[in-house]
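Design job #97: recover the sequence.
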């Protein structure tokens, strides 16, 4: 695992790769009825003051060099692989495809109250969604390792490099205190309505489990 920047915010630094394309991201913006023109790229921070692509642009490009790895294990220990996937490309593409893959594994159990059927998933979809988005949007991209999702029979682990930002605690996060490691990346996800507001994701995950833990 190699640290790629020193000091400055990773997303604001100039990308070493300037030959970037945005086929997937352009489609997402188009579907959201948002512009992805040159001026918009500058406004969002994909293009810096030197008119060159930033690392934010790299993260949203088809050439993104960070990946998201999902491993499915048999049982409750990390011993036997049942399946594994590595998702590449724009972070927007990685999030979409990873969520779809996890959703296929997330079993549905039907219960009945009289004639009424109620379907329940092993894991609440909103909890999975929030955990995945949190792992991708708030990780430390100055390190080259992949974001990891480990799926066991009794739990799902989301492992994101960087940990909680210095100065924050889980208690303060639960109270709604927010400080984004990647403010510009978070802003892109916010504009695309992938995240609703800063500081709500972790609380939503706990709320989804209030009646089950």
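Job complete. Output follows.
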């Amino acid at each position: 695992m190699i640290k790629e920047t020193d000091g400055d915010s990773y997303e604001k630094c100039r990308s070493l790769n300037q030959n970037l394309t945005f086929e997937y991201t352009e489609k997402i913006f188009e579907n959201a009825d948002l512009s992805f023109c040159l001026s918009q790229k500058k406004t969002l921070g994909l293009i810096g003051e030197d008119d060159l692509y930033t690392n934010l642009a790299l993260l949203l490009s088809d050439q993104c060099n960070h990946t998201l790895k999902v491993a499915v294990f048999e049982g409750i220990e990390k011993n036997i692989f049942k399946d594994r996937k590595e998702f590449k490309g724009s972070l927007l593409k990685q999030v979409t495809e990873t969520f779809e893959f996890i959703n296929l594994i997330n079993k549905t159990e039907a219960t009945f109250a009289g004639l009424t059927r109620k379907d329940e998933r092993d894991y609440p979809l909103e909890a999975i969604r929030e955990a995945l988005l949190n792992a991708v949007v708030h990780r430390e991209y100055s390190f080259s390792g992949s974001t990891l999702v480990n799926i066991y029979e009794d739990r799902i682990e989301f492992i994101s490099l960087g940990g909680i930002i210095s100065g924050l605690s889980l208690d303060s996060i639960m109270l709604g205190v927010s400080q984004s490691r990647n403010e510009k990346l978070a802003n892109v996800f916010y504009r695309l309505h992938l995240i609703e507001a800063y500081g709500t994701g972790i609380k939503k995950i706990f709320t989804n489990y209030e009646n089950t833990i």
